[in-house]
Amino acid sequence: MTELLEQYGSIAGEQVISSLYRFANFLQGKKVVHVNSTRKGGGVAEILRCMVPLLNELGIETRWEVIEGSESFFVATKSIHNALQGLEVPFPESYREIYIETNRENAEKMRDRLEDADFVFIHDPQPAPLLSLCPKRRGKWIWRCHIDASSPNRNVWKMLRHIVSSYDASVFSLADFSQHLPHSQYLIPPSIDPLSEKNIILSEREVDDVCQRFGINRARPLIVQISRFDLFKDPLGVIKGYQMAKQHADMQLVLAGGGATDDPEAGAVLEQVRNVASDDSDIHVIELPSDAHRVINALQVAADVIIQKSIREGFGLTVAEGMWKYKPVIGGDVGGIRLQIINRYNGFRVQSAEGAALRLRYLLAHGRRCKRMGQNAHEYVQENFLITTHLRALLALMLCLSQDSSNDFEMCMTS
After folding, report:
1. Cα(92)–Cα(318) distance, rounded to whole angstroms?
2. Does an H or E element contain 17, and which?
3. Would you give the distance in Å from CA 31 to the centre of its chain?
């Protein structure tokens, strides 16, 4: 066992690491490529940052490729993203043309590596057309959809379905997200890396320093939402819930996050949030660079309650991150948040700002209950949403596809 995997074993358990080796032994000599649209910012990049080294550590040659594109390309793909989550957005022919042409340009740069791989994982819609641009591919191609595609815009999904139908398999985070496709579909929830800077144990001094830097008083109750500045994360709804709860209890609110190179809308949302929060000195709107992992960690540790009041959500890794730090989480009753929060056990799921305000007041007023739910939250992540569990499911998927199984093989977090 390598030193790195020993470290994971000390958290996840040696039995889990042993199972990784057993699966990996059947895949020695295979080549794996992951492709997504950004190396910084967002949950997919965070997962790949730890997943790719671990696969190589297990002896499976693995690369991480990132497609490049202009601002116009990412405007078009953001429209696809929003449309998959059900928004009625314009998608003119010019968007489709730049979507395909940018993938064609990227295919010229990475075709040899993609066609030579035994397994290619294409994450989300941005690089999806690459498959049709690699006619000599020899391996299995898997479309990994991290988005809540349960109620997509019909026209955009029709275009995308035509593109992804040729894949050998698809992976979704939840069964509710899946769509009718002419190949096998698998369920694998995302995960967090307990050894990353965002999730390791920090000293109290470092947490204090971060709070002081942003003018946060640790002696007063603190509510924290960490996420991209994206309207689907509902930062304005968080402020509304905080304002209602604050009429009854003292508290501060932190809204912290950043953008990603594939999200051209973040700047406008951030400006909107700052305008709404400008009259309240207890609301801290913090724009962070994509590598501010220890700062995010410190803010989550300092929080009394974590909130993630999304109105659409693929999975919501910030929920698991907060739970890992022994915090109860108030989350929107959508997407992958439903998979992580068991109502009244490790947090609360809410459907409105009023609901968020009610649960904030409850948790701040019941300290022992709040602490117990935080303990439950940590244990739930330990059992279900660590990178090692995720990796085991991924290895099992590759084994299944390499054996050309004709039977659907549903991965689940308890496999």
Report:
1. 34
2. helix 14-25
3. 25
Q: One-letter amino acid identity for 283?
A: I
Which tokens sit at 111? 């075709």
Tokens for 382, please give them. 């330990």
Residue 223, both tokens: 């509510």
Rounded Cα distance, 192 and 194, in Å: 6
How many Cα atoms sit within 13 Å of 229 on the Cβ side?
A: 24
Q: Half-sphere exposure of residue 7, counting CA atoms within 13 Å on the CB side?
A: 10
SS3 at position 32:
strand
Burial of 42 (0-12, 13-18, 19+ CB in 10 A): buried
Report which of 142, 176, 173, 184 is spatially closest to residue 409, judged by C-alpha positions. Answer: 184
* 39 burial via Cβ count (<10 Å: 0-12, 13-18, 19+): middle
pLDDT tens, residue by residue, 216-248: 999 999 999 999 898 899 999 999 999 999 999
Cα dihedral sign for 91, 287, 324, 22?
A: positive
What is the full DSSP assignment across 101-123? HHHHHHHHHHHHHHHH-SEEEEE
Q: How many CB atoms lie within 10 A of CB 166?
A: 13
Q: Are 248 and 286 in contact (CB under 8 A)?
A: no
Structure tokens at 76: 């078009």
Q: pTM for the whole thing?
A: 0.88
φ, ψ (nearest 5 deg) of residue 366: -125, 80
The pairing of beta strand 329-332 with beta strand 305-308: parallel
Continuous segment of H or E residues that includes residue 207: helix 204-213
pLDDT digits 0-9 by tens, 305-356: 999 999 988 899 999 999 999 999 999 999 999 999 999 999 999 999 999 9
Tell me, what amino acid is at 382?
Q
Q: Phi and psi for 325 in degrees, rounded to 5?
A: -95, 25
Strand partners for 62: 32
Hey, what amino acid is at 269?
V
Q: Which residue has the tokens 């009753």?
A: 333
Q: Which two tokens stand for residue 28?
A: 């020695």
At residue 44, the 3 state secondary structure works out as: helix
Rounded Cα distance between 166 and 168, Å, is 7
